[in-house]
């Protein structure tokens, strides 16, 4: 079970995966893998672009039962295979060209535990409790899919 806590308006999640640090980092930085686990179950990603380098951009478009969405950001720090830091903005109704939603920062750290990896994610600050809750549920669902990918399951 993942460890998650609230530090004011920021989400902290720590999870251990049965895969090497290089393998887990690769799942975050290779488009063909990223698209398979990013976003919780019930979300179909319709577009994925990632340019994993400092100053590079990322974007996902998708749809779920509530409609369409876009999220995007810029990589602020990339230290393979130790750390990724990037911004995260949600675009209302999938309108990528339109106004950006509240922007947050995501910091992901990868710590080697032999053949396992401790992933620590810090995401925030969030504008309100509902935004925090939605992202916590989203990351929990995404990490479940990431675990399946890392086990090699289809």
Automatic annotation (TrEMBL):
Matching Pfam families: AHSA1
InterPro entries referenced in this protein's UniProt entry, alphabetically: ASHA1/2-like_C (IPR013538), START-like_dom_sf (IPR023393)
Highest rank taxon of the organism: Bacteria
Start and end residues of each Activator of Hsp90 ATPase homologue 1/2-like C-terminal domain: 18-150
Annotated family: Belongs to the AHA1 family.
Protein name: SRPBCC domain-containing protein
Organism: Reyranella aquatilis
